[in-house]
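HUMAN: Please help interpret these tokens:
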Amino acid sequence: MKKLPIVKHIGIGLLLGGVAGAVTGAVITLYKFCAKHIIHLSEEGYAFLRHNPLWILPAVAALVGLAVVLGYIYRRTTNLRGGGIPTAIAVLRGWLPFQWLRNAVGIFTLSLTTFLVGVPLGNEGPSVQLGTALGKGCTKLMGRRRGGWIRYGMTGGACAGFATATGAPLSGILFAVEEAHHRVSPLLLLVATAAVSASRLVSDLLSSLLGVSSTLFPAMSLRPLSAAECWIPLVVGVLIGLFAVAFLSFYRGMAHLLNHKLAKVPDWSKILIILLLTLGMGLVSYSHISTGHELILSLFDGEAVLVLVALLLVRTTLTVGANVTNLTGGIFLPLLAIGAILSALFAEGVTALGLDASYYPVILVLGITACIGGMMKMPLTAVAFAVEALSAYELILPILLVTAVSYGTAELFDAVSINDRVLDTRLEQIREGRSRTVAETTVTVQPLSFAVGKEIRDIFWPDGLFVLSVDKKGALGGKTLHEGDELRVRYATFDEKRLKRELAAILGKQE
């Protein structure tokens, strides 16, 4: 029996990741260009309505029509609903079926629509979902339709989408390990690194041509903290961690209200409520709505306490409501904005008590980092993001402290990440009324199948399937799978036919 050379896996992984990353980098940069101008148009539109109130009634009528259209689209295409990162994670883990072209076009257009209205959702979630779709499309177009390469291609695209949207390449790689798959394998890191590197090169080139910033935040000069000042990250970490617990409880309550208590209310009417609330808040101040990017930048210059309290209440309610009603858009950047507002409130308080004002931007950076670590439960990504996107080079120890404390505080109260909370809500809706099949069987590695030459850890097995044991029938031993090896597997699934198709694509058609 001939062993499939490992160099072939490396070559395919590098090529697949590079192509998926380059295509994703180009498309996401174009997407950022469109989003930038759409958001600017939205801001001008709200300014026009404030000075011409007679046009508010036609605007309301337009929102009614938009709510009806969106309700119809979401009912027909469930993968276009809600935050892009939770949907992408569900697809990458094999929980949801995925049509790449329809999804890419839908996410691109629908998210721009929500930006035009000013709904407080961001572009990083759609960027990750767009990358996932483009990664699958590139994999298929490269002739890797069968086997386990499709999920590798989608992972590369998702990492590239995150890195291009945030300007944080290392964070994009860690996203695959820490959030998307909860695992580390050499092949996974290889594909993710190749994809992020290619996307960064393409993005830097196109960003200069289109006049789009390739970074999320400008470079900042932050004062370092001494050992005696490390009480600041400790307090900020506890504050954000406790808020994460309250925020997730609020999200769960809102989801229960809209999806269960008001289950008979048409979806379009729930969407309309969020759109009208967005319109009303936007007429008061545009900083109450939109993605939150410009708001975060403005907070570094300071803000009145009462304004911060109003921003916290309004943006938290609108962001959660928009996500629960399935409006297309990301929650990563809006959550960072909420973390920035909360840390700005703390900064205003301690500076009023005598702390030097030069600590203000440091506290905001710590709060944003703690938000990723505590609310999203991505501590490694939080540290990398703080260094890459927030220029926190001189704050490594405070960054580590605030991330650990916020994460630990959330864990102390058994709080799950916001992405997992959104995923649980989505899967509950999809699996309602369906029964789960549990079975155990033996399968064989067929000649020239995808599994030949790979280790168990390098294969994205179907959702709900676990490899219990491996009986090495071939002449070669070790951890690598070979032709003829028998695997004892157990699975629990809501779609047994789909699971068996995926398993056959990995191991080859079974007897």
Observations:
- The mean pLDDT is 90.
- The CA atoms of residues 152 and 188 lie 7 Å apart.
- The longest strand covers residues 437-444.
